[in-house]
Amino acid sequence: MVTNLGNKIRSAAHGIMIGASVLLAAGTQASADTNIAGKKVVFVPIAMGISLTEGWARRMREHADMHGYTLDVRDAAFNTGSMAELLAKAISEKPDVLVVHNPTVQLLARQIKQAESEGIKVLQINLQSNQPSAAFVGANWERIGREIAEDIVKECGAGSGKSGKVSIVPGQLTAADSVIMNEAAFKVFEAHSEIEVVSNQASDWEPEKARQITATVLQQHPDLCAVFGHWDVHTMGAGNAVKDAGLADDVLVYATGGGDNVACDAVEDNVLDRVWSYDADGQGRDAGTMVDLLLQGAAGADGAMMSVESPMKIIKSGESYDPGLCWKM
Amino acid sequence: MPRAGKRKGRLLEFVVMAVTVALVAAFSIAVDGFATLGNLQVILSNSASLVILSCGMAVVIISRGLDLSLIAVMVAGATTFSIFINADIPVLTALALTVAAMAMVGLVNAWLIAYVEIPAMLATLASAMFVTGLFRFAILRGEFLLLLSKSNPAVIFLSGEVAPGISTPVALMVAALIITWFLLRGSAAGRTIYAMGDNFQAARLTGLPVRTTTIVVYVFAAMAALCAGLVTSAASGVVDFRTVTNGTLLFEVILVVVLGGIPLRGGRGGVWNIIIGVALIAVLRNGMTLLNFTSQTQDVLKGLVLMVAIVADNYLNPRDTETDAVGDL
What we know:
The structure holds two protein chains of two kinds.
Chain A: H1 2-32, E1 40-44, H2 51-67, E2 70-73, H3 80-92, E3 97-100, H4 109-117, E4 121-125, E5 135-138, H5 141-156, E6 165-169, H6 176-190, E7 196-200, H7 207-220, E8 226-229, H8 232-244, E9 252-257, H9 261-268, E10 274-277, H10 280-295, E11 306-309, E12 313-316
Parallel strand pairs in A: 1-2, 1-3, 3-4, 4-5, 5-11, 6-7, 6-8, 8-9, 9-10
Antiparallel strand pairs in A: 10-12
Chain B: H1 3-30, H2 37-62, H3 70-86, H4 91-115, H5 120-139, E1 145-147, H6 153-159, E2 161-163, E3 166-167, H7 168-185, H8 188-198, H9 200-205, H10 210-236, E4 238-240, H11 242-246, H12 248-260, H13 271-290, H14 295-316, H15 321-326
Antiparallel strand pairs in B: 1-4, 2-3
Helix pairs in contact in B: 1-13, 1-14, 2-7, 2-8, 2-10, 2-12, 2-13, 3-4, 3-5, 3-10, 4-5, 4-10, 6-10, 7-8, 7-10, 8-10, 12-13
């Protein structure tokens, strides 16, 4: 009898728990019903076909599918002229949100301002323009530049027994990341007179140009201590120049990047030594979430730009190397 | 060709040589590390792909043609070979298949020019677009970059040394120059190439095999482009399609040929002119990199050199009744 009563109580408790779970699940679903289905989002990246933008688009599409809004990707294929045209066309279509990947701080500033004045919310992803807009999701370039410079000071500066010579290989001198990282890095280096920047030449994001610049610099400065490349893809050219010169053990090659498996492969191949990854996969999810919020009417206090900073993952060669820090498409 | 005209035509070579010698002297005095054997090796190694491409372009231009598909074929060839070796296909089989594929592009170019009689500039522009589009979207599925493992034996060979102090790119560069010299000076096709460049209609009317020679010219250019593509991608560890889309390398190749003293209207020039043209560009590029000039400043100076060369070419090789009647590119 007692056992029967116990069983009944247990069954009733289970029933209540299941019912509560169903109610909770329904409640969760209800809160996900954001009423943003049918809205339109246009994403204009510098180029598709690279892991960074493909990774973002993949995660943003997941959000679009989940909530029933559309995400159109307009590929500028590294052509800044066509990027401005694609953006002009996107603005004329009056989407609800425009996601823009700025090649330089100035190029799309006027169009971002125009889009915002026409009521289109602009989300800038990873590379910021001079023109503020509704939101920004991306890396904190000041932090990356500063942290890499501080690491270089630690490895090449006073007491390290190294020359203190550093070669910087930016992508483009007017690109937001290069401008901010260089500013932050030089600020650190200025406080350490033993650090000498022997070269600061842009590679136009091309690995072969980065290789040629680095091969030439290494010839003039065989005691070079570190190379600081602003993007892992072009820095692989620089890393190959270091490796071909037989200096892989002497010259540290630093890079930043989206942290896909290619970055880990390069670290395993001794082409890159240290990569500050802003985790493009995570950024894609952040961007998707931000788009959801913008479509629901979220806005910064007093019209200020909302900002989401990407957490960093530092991929280092050596004993602490962890391939799990990289993601795969 | 009248003797006086020949002398006048060679004036540009002497001007370019004098400028190169002056630059070498100035850089040797002003730039630390310029006048060293190691830097000479870097200059040669960094110029290898430019020389090989210029061999292809020079032969085409001497025959009064123009090959705008050169860079597209270079990158497409490197892509084809890389895909094969990444798929663990034996190197020789991969090379044979790549050579056949790129020779086919050269054949199509030649067929369009010689048999369909489309102007060379338009035919090769169309084939460049077709090849780029086909490879990017059908073969690389939208990717811009294809990474090569530095541990692959073919990559190790192409970026390594054939003998102590002589890198494979430099050896291939010398081989390309010798083959070009033989084609132009030691073969019957070479005499026809000069005749075609001098006066295409006269060469045709005198019964010279202008159509089959056009095939030789464009297939040779495609092979040179393939060779340059293999050298570049093995060195930087990346096949980069932006080399085609940003277009600067194509203009650099034309710059080298024109600077060296090969007029765009064809009929004159040889291997020596290629060496002169590359020497100026290579010395200028190396010196400016050692001086830590930004890439934008480098572009401005190279553009200035091209303008001066074209003006000098126009002054030293003025159009006469014959060249005006036949037309120019």
